[in-house]
What does this fold into?
Amino acid sequence: MNASSLLPSNDTPLCYTINNPPFQYVPTIASAYFSSIFSVLGITSNLIAFVVLIKSFQRTHSSSRSSFLIFLGGLVVTDFMGLLVTGSIVVSFHVTHFNWRHLDPRCHFCNFMGMSMVFYGLCPLLLGAAMALERFIGITRPFARTTTLPKKRTVFMLLLVWFIAGCIALLPLTGVGSYHMQMPGSWCFFNISSEGSDLTFSVLFSMAGLTCIVVSFVLNTVTVVTLIKVCCGQDKMQRPRDQEVEMMVQLILIMAIASICWCPILIYILLYSTTDEAVKGESLLLYIRLATCNQIFDPWIYIMCHLLPIRSLLHKLR
It folds into this structure.
């Protein structure tokens, strides 16, 4: 797909100043099928995972596990909504090949999709860091945790994560960064540039994501080491730790998948926003697709852990 020969004029809305529709669109069946299968698979997986988490939540009597399941439920809801919102727009474009300038002359729709991409992209990373912090405090500082209203505290932390991600996603509407149409014309994202406020927002987004991954790695590493010491120490028979081990296995898998899916695009954004080199549309699209895979792989962690209970395996290994 190549951009049209129509150059942006002075009255061109901001989101179309870089890539200005209509485009010379060459239909590709692969794109339509890929987007449709990708979205349906992700939405279905998250629905199944949500049912699994509800059943697990109803059966649990542990406050720490209840808090962990609330975080997982928030992650599933976020992934589901992210795929539903962005997937619906992308699939609709590939099916109808609509003209963005006619459908969205004032960039409201494009800004909404850009905000959705940022919000639903940052939420899993922020939630991963929040869950790592909760498990770190729960295992390394068990007496520091308040025993009153743990579920309300967890819900507050979940809402705080959504609020922070929402505030960052709204920044381009206040002039810090800007949302633009991206090639091949099926989606909108913030402008990755080394100039002005676009540089500020690009660095903010990438550093926020990378910081969450680093924090998750450090906290999870300390927590696992502490858990191993407790399990192998003299008090290993005083308190069963199978439940903590199960939660940590899930959390480590969540962190690993998030790191694999998100590190390439976060590093890509950071590198290209701090240099004068132009962003390559095909590379950006490839990295975005890899990052979106996180929303498909996440729910299968909960589903597989439900089908193959880790605690049962631990009992067999004893």
